[in-house]
C-alpha cells in the first residue's frame, strides 16, 4: 500500500472513532439525531464541493444512481448501528461490526474486482480482523453489565444474557451494511472517477427525505435536540463525512481488500474509550487485542 493511501486511511480511522463516540452519546435520540446528522453533514461540506473538483463527472445520471443506492445503504447502516448502540454495549456493537464489515469487503473485492493482495498483505488483513474480533469477544463478556450501567438505561442486568446478545446481533448486521456500502461506493467512485466530497455530500443529502419521514410529527423534539446537542451535531457533521471522504480517496489509490481492514484501527480507539470512560471492563485484554490489530497494521504498511 502506498504511503499516501496509508495516511489517508489511518486519518479516516481517527475521524471515524471520534464520530462513533459522539453518536453513542446521543444515540437514544434515534431518528432526530440522524436527521440532524444528515443535515449538518450536507451543510458543512456542500460549500467545499466547488473547490475540490465539482462532481468529478459529466454523467449526471450515473452520479445520481450511485448516490441514491449509496444513500440507501448508508441509511440501513446508520439505522442498524444506532439501534445496536441503544440495546448493546458500545464496544460489542462497534467491534463486531468492524470485524464483520472488512472481512466481507475483502471477500467481495477479491471476487468482483479481481483484487489479489500479496500473501503478506493478506496475513496482515487476517491479523487485523482477528484482533478486532478478539476485542468483540472480550467486550461481549461484559456487555450485560455495560448495558445495564449505561446512563439512563433501565434494562435489567440479565437482559443481555437471554438469547442472542443484541449487541452481537446488531453488530453483525451493521457489518453486512458496511460491506455493502464499501464495495458499492468503491465501485462507483472508481468507475466514474467521482469527486469523493461531492459523492459524500450527495449521499447525505439523499438521506434527508427518509429521516424527515421518520421524524414526522416530532419536529418540536427535533428542534429541542438541535438546541441541546448542537455541538455534538456539528462535530458529527464534520467528522462523519470526513472519515469517509478520506476512505473514498484511498480506494482510488489502493485495493479495497487492504483499505477496508486498515480503517478498522478505529476500533482500538473506541474499545479503549469504552473501557476507560464507559467502564465496560477488561482493559488489559483489550490492550492485548489492540496490540494484535497494530501488528496487522504493520504488515499492511510494508
What would you note in describing this structure?
The structure is a single chain. With 302 residues, the chain is mainly α. It has one domain. The protein contains 13 helices and no strands. The longest helix is centred in the first third of the chain and has 28 residues, at 60-87. The radius of gyration is 19 Å and the shape is globular. The model is unreliable at 143-161 (pLDDT under 50).
Question: What's the short story on this structure?
Answer:
With 302 residues, this protein is mostly helical. The chain has helices at 3-25, 31-46, 60-87, 90-112, 119-141, 143-149, 166-192, 196-214, 219-228, 230-251, 256-262, 266-276, 283-300.
Sequence stretches where pLDDT stays below 50 over 5 or more residues: 143-161
Order of helical and strand elements: HHHHHHHHHHHHH
Global outline: globular
Query: What is the beta-strand fraction?
Result: under 5%
For the secondary structure, the number of strands is: 0
CA-atom Rg in angstroms:
19 Å
Subunit arrangement of the protein: single chain
Average pLDDT works out at: 81
Helix fraction?
over 70%
Category from helices, strands and their pairing: mainly alpha
Topology overview:
Layout: H1 3-25, H2 31-46, H3 60-87, H4 90-112, H5 119-141, H6 143-149, H7 166-192, H8 196-214, H9 219-228, H10 230-251, H11 256-262, H12 266-276, H13 283-300
Helix pairs in contact: 1-10, 1-12, 2-8, 2-9, 2-10, 3-7, 3-8, 4-5, 4-7, 4-11, 4-12, 5-11, 5-13, 8-10, 12-13
Amino acid at each position: 500500500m502506498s504511503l499516501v493511501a496509508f495516511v489517508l486511511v489511518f486519518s479516516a480511522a481517527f475521524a471515524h472513532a471520534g464520530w462513533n463516540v459522539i453518536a453513542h452519546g446521543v444515540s437514544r435520540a434515534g431518528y432526530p439525531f440522524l436527521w440532524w446528522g444528515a443535515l449538518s453533514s450536507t451543510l458543512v461540506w456542500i460549500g467545499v464541493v466547488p473547490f475540490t473538483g465539482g462532481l468529478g463527472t459529466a454523467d449526471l445520471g450515473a452520479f445520481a444512481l450511485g448516490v441514491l443506492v449509496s444513500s440507501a445503504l448508508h441509511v440501513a447502516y446508520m439505522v442498524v448501528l444506532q439501534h445496536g448502540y441503544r440495546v448493546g454495549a458500545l464496544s460489542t456493537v462497534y467491534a463486531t461490526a468492524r470485524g464483520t464489515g472488512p472481512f466481507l469487503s475483502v471477500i467481495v473485492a477479491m471476487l468482483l474486482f479481481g483484487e489479489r493482495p500479496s500473501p503478506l498483505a493478506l496475513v496482515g488483513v487476517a491479523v487485523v480482523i482477528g484482533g478486532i474480533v478478539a476485542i468483540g469477544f472480550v467486550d461481549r463478556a461484559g456487555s450485560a453489565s455495560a448495558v445495564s450501567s449505561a446512563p439512563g438505561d433501565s434494562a435489567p442486568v440479565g437482559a443481555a444474557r437471554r438469547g442472542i446478545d443484541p449487541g452481537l446481533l446488531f453488530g453483525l448486521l451493521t457489518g453486512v451494511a458496511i460491506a455493502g456500502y464499501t464495495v458499492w461506493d468503491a465501485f462507483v467512485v472508481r468507475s466514474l472517477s467521482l469527486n469523493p466530497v461531492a459523492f459524500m455530500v450527495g449521499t447525505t443529502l439523499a438521506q434527508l427525505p427518509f429521516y424527515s419521514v421518520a421524524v414526522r410529527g416530532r419536529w418540536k423534539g427535533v428542534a429541542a435536540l438541535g438546541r441541546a446537542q448542537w455541538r455534538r451535531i456539528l462535530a458529527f457533521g464534520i467528522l462523519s463525512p470526513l472519515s469517509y471522504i478520506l476512505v473514498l480517496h484511498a480506494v482510488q489509490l489502493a485495493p479495497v481488500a487492504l483499505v477496508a481492514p486498515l480503517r478498522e484501527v478505529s476500533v482500538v480507539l473506541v474499545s479503549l474509550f469504552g473501557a476507560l470512560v464507559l467502564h465496560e471492563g477488561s482493559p488489559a485484554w483489550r490492550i492485548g487485542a489492540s496490540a494484535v490489530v497494530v501488528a496487522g497494521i504493520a504488515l499492511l504498511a510494508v
